[in-house]
Amino acid sequence: MITPLKNNLLIEVYKASSVFEMLDENQTEKGKVLAVGPLVDSVNKGDEIIFKSYALDKFEDGDDKYYILSEDDVKGIYA
Q1: 79 by DSSP, 3-state: which?
Q2: What are the Cα distances from residue 77, in Å, to 19, 42, 44, 65?
Q3: What three-state secondary structure class fits 68?
Q4: Is the separation of the CB atoms in 58 and 67 below 8 Å?
Q5: Are 44 and 32 in contact (CB under 8 A)?
Q6: Is 39 left (phi over 0), alpha (psi -120 to 50) or beta?
């Protein structure tokens, strides 16, 4: 697994539930935190978060897709 650096998060992004959500670039996305960097204070591994879709850095390693997000771009945590 990838270990995020600084205040970054490794996340799994949940799929959009409709075509309209996929077309809306400003929509809020939902995902699950898989790993956190050493400087992350307010988010923990396993948290479900919301964030803006434009903030993701996406990359692939074989068949695996990974997404990195800065803690600063997290808009909320589901309780």
Answers
A1: coil
A2: 25, 9, 10, 22
A3: strand
A4: yes
A5: no
A6: alpha
Tokens of residue 14, six digits: 């949940």
The DSSP line for 6-64 is TTEEEEEEPPPSSHHHHH-TTPEEEEEEEEE-TT--S--TT-EEEEEGGG-EEEEETTE
Query: What is the amino acid identity at position 78?
Result: Y
* pTM for this predicted structure: 0.82
**pLDDT (tens digit, 9 = 90+) per residue, 16-68?**
555 445 445 567 789 999 999 999 999 999 999 999 878 889 888 788 788 99
Count of CB atoms within 10 A of residue 7's CB?
A: 18
How many Å apart are CA 27 and CA 19, to the nearest integer?
A: 12
* Residues 29 and 51: beta-carbon distance below 8 Å: yes
